[in-house]
Amino acid sequence: MSFKKFLFSFTFFKNLFIALIIVVLFLVAFVKFLDFSTNHGEEITVPNLSKMKLEVAEEKLDDEGLEVFLLDTVDFRPEFPPYSIVEQDPIAGSKVKDGRKIYVKLNAGGFAMVTFPDLKDKTFRQATNTLRALGLVEGELKYVPNIAKDIVLEVSCNGKPVKAGDKLMKNSKIDFVLGDGKDLFKEEELDSLNMDQQEIEKDTTH
After folding, report:
1. What is the tally of helices (H) and strands (E) in the chain?
2. Alpha-carbon dihedral sign for residues 159, 163, 166, 169
3. What's the rounded mean pLDDT across residues 172-179?
4. Whether 108 contacts 142, CB under 8 Å
5. Which residues form a coiled coil (predicted)?
6. pLDDT one-digit tens code per residue, 13-34
7. Domains of the chain, CATH where assigned
8. Neighbouring residues of 173: CB distance < 8 A, sequence distance ≥ 6
9. Which end of the chain lies in a sparser environment, N or C, as judged by fewer CB atoms within 10 Å?
10. Cα separation, 70 vs 167, whole angstroms
């Protein structure tokens, strides 16, 4: 039988059909094997990584078939341990596919240092607005006699005077000494001044 006749023979088409079936079965089996070996299609519950060190989270996610990716370090939050995870995306409890990256942010190792501003002779409202912008906290208030009400006369931290340019840790408490807005003269001194004024007026009328 010539080759041309063989190409159009029943035997050729039968063998071709059998070969195609074998190829299809092999591909189906191969895909099934991949699905089985990679857990394709299965969803994984994202664990809660809050307050974990990055190394611990990496081990935990690796066991789950997930990856961790560090995005950034945020300002220190005292409710979290230093260098622990404070945020994650996707959040805990989410359903994800195998191999998904979990993006995390770490807590700083401590409060950052800030430069203390010049608050002397500013109003208490101005001073507190400045402190809050720097991450500092108002502490105790003490009023002393001064004609200017709520004017900052002195500032201190942990009992020590603080001046402009000093370095303080964020979240430090700043204590204030403020003017009470009352006259500096005592009542007796005012009475004496009034009497002197009356004597002057009498002398000028005579």
Report:
1. 5, 11
2. positive
3. 96
4. no
5. none
6. 777 788 889 988 888 888 777 6
7. 43-107 (3.30.10.20), 113-180 (3.30.10.20)
8. 136, 137, 138, 139, 157, 158
9. C
10. 30
Are 149 and 181 spatial neighbours (Cβ–Cβ below 8 Å)? Answer: yes
The pLDDT tens digits for 187-206 are 445 455 455 555 555 555 55
Amino acid code (one letter) for 56: V
The SS3 assignment for 191 reads helix
DSSP string, 3-41: HHHHHTSHHHHHHHHHHHHHHHHHHHHHHHHHHHHHTTT
Tell whether the model's pLDDT for residue 81 goes beyond 60.
yes
Is the torsion defined by CA of 90, 95, 96, 98 positive or negative?
A: positive
Q: Answer for the pair 96, 130: CB distance below 8 angstroms, yes or no.
A: no
Would you give the DSSP letter of residue 186?
A: -
| Block residue for tokens 């800030």 | 114
How far is 68 from 96, CA to CA, in rounded Å?
13
CB atoms near residue 49 (< 10 Å)? 23
Query: How many C-beta atoms lie closer than 10 Å to residue 46's C-beta?
Result: 20
Distance CA 109, CA 12 (A): 75
Q: In angstroms, how far is CA 166 from the centroid of its own chain?
A: 25
The sign one gets for the Cα dihedral 117, 118, 123, 124 is positive
Residues composing the chain: 206
106, burial (CB in 10 Å: exposed 0-12, middle 13-18, buried 19+): buried
